[in-house]
Structure prediction request, 125 residues.
Amino acid sequence: MNLQRVNEIINGAIQLGCNPQREYAHAFASDLMSDVLRYQMENAVLITGLCTVQAIRTAEIINVPCIIFGRGKQVTPDMLALAEEHQISIIVSGSTIFEIAGKLYQNGLKPVPYEDAVSHRGRQF
Prediction:
């Protein structure tokens, strides 16, 4: 599913469209960036309500190519500049995180596989 299709499904607004033909296979929803850091997400969208530079930095670390900010959050110019620098697409939506995740799941995006969790001290998360 490409960026335009994701945006249509969630009735969002693309704020920054880096690599619009990229195909996404998975989604992950969280406001806790510590949870996000446990997974590898090269072909995933991150759905969050945490509308801060921290979310962009977290996406950069784990190679998330697209962030969807829900609950009507608005990105700042600094966030857009950082996202553009790291080629991270940004979509904003007035829908809740739950609604966004549900709509994307209904239309074929799968959860990030649990097996992709980064182990810590020999444990899988």
About this structure: The two ends are 27 Å apart (CA to CA). The first helix runs from residue 3 to 10.
